Amino acid sequence: MGYLTSGNVIVDAMGSINITGNIIPAVWYRTITKENEKPYLLAIVILADIVYWYRPSEVRDQGTGHILGWKKKFSEDILRQSYQYYADLFGESKKTVKTAMDRLEKLQVIRREFRTVSYGEGLVCNNVMYVELKPDMLYRLTFPEEMPAMDGADDSCAGVSDDKMGGSLPAKSDTPMEIFDEEAAAVVRRIFQSVLAGETIASIAKALRAEKIPIPSEHWKRTGEPVRAAKYTDPYAWSATTIGYILKRPEYTGRKVLGKTVCENYKTKSSRKTAPEEQYIFEGAIPAIVDVETWQTVQKIRETVRRAPKRQNAPNRLTGLLYCADCGSKLTHRYNLVQGKWIEDAFICSGYRHLIHDCTMHHIPTAKIEAAILAVIQRVSWYVRHNEKEFTERVREASDQNQEKTVKECKQKINKAQKAAQRAGRACEKAVRGQRHGQDSFNGFCKVVIRYAAINAWRDRNRRRQREISFDKYIVKSMLFRLCVKVA
User: Fold this and answer.
1) What is the three-class DSSP state of 258?
2) CB atoms closer than 10 angstroms to residue 357
3) In 10 A of CB 461, how many CB atoms?
4) Higher-confidence residue: 317 or 114?
5) Nearest Cα residue to 28 out of 132, 157, 144, 134
6) For the chain, how far is it from start to end, CA to CA, in angstroms?
7) 296 touches 196 (CB < 8 A)
8) Chain mean position to CA 172
9) pLDDT tens digits, residue range 264-277?
10) Is the four-CA dihedral 224, 225, 230, 234 of positive or negative sign?
11) Is pTM, for the whole model, over 0.70?
């Protein structure tokens, strides 16, 4: 038995594409018009977007597929929007958006309300726009042949049955009906409880990895959700960074945080992270996984700095100079000073017990390392005393090679600096042209100039620092040579 077909390949193909979003009835082109009786397209698309936000979403049981209820798409009592939102969405100016919404309000299909919203900690926003949809007038605009003439009266659709209105509306519920992943929520609760129990971030990550619990990216990949970080080698490689990011998210307490970033320049698309007082926080907008008290306690625990006892002596002189021959990681100095005596004084590989590449410990006592270094110094000093001419030639050749390498690096830096200067010049010229033609702001021009001035200052500081380091290296080499001769 064949499948159903319309006889047209394109129509059959379109039948398999599920398109959702804003709906525009054709009759709106006759009922929503300008003063010249022509369709008001901007007002129509704005109304379609408002209707989309007010249309309820179904909540179904995953096992039976039965409808459990309806939920709204926004968190407050009525929809909050702004002129700027529609200006960016439809590529119009705020003035034209306001004029279109004035027309919709004149048709009594929407009502605008401006409120003063307080977000706590003294942050108050004035003139925040809320848009209320009028279902009765929307029905009049959508089905004008079934309604009496629209004379501007405020009478509602009393004579219209529930069948024509599409059924009765569900009862209002104050609790948000959101469906979330209970498996992922259980992992989040476990992480918070582990921190409260006194476990470290590293031990939590190690336990999750040992139990083969997938990382967030792998979990969303298995459930078919979009994944931000799609490239990873180990699906169970929990890291301290991932767990720390989970622990500091306020959304797990039921808060909906909006406005975490803000676009500073619509041309360059540059954005920055906002301060807490600039964000919009809605309490109880989403289901809570952990309670507020638990979340705050975890934040206090993480803010508490736990340091080892301070050094009673200066750091070891070999710290930062030794590297592992197997993995290339630095050797870190491990010590325990008890009552003025060194219980343990050794270097170990920093790649030991690493999350990705695990190297061996390489426990090397500091005394053995210093003895090996002293033996090398003695051999070099003996060679210098018995082969002074050969040593001088070798030092001269090495110096010439270093000078050639330094000259080459300097030329490369000069070329990069010249190219950067040319780019800065072009950017300044572009900013000036944009200022002349009204395409850019004076603030943008100032930002460009300040940015490149900061880059040049940073480069000058690095050059001075490099010269100081070179002079220090020269002094250190001279003192080391004298020390070698003296020891030998």
Assistant:
1) strand
2) 10
3) 10
4) 114
5) 144
6) 98
7) no
8) 35
9) 776 677 788 888 77
10) negative
11) no
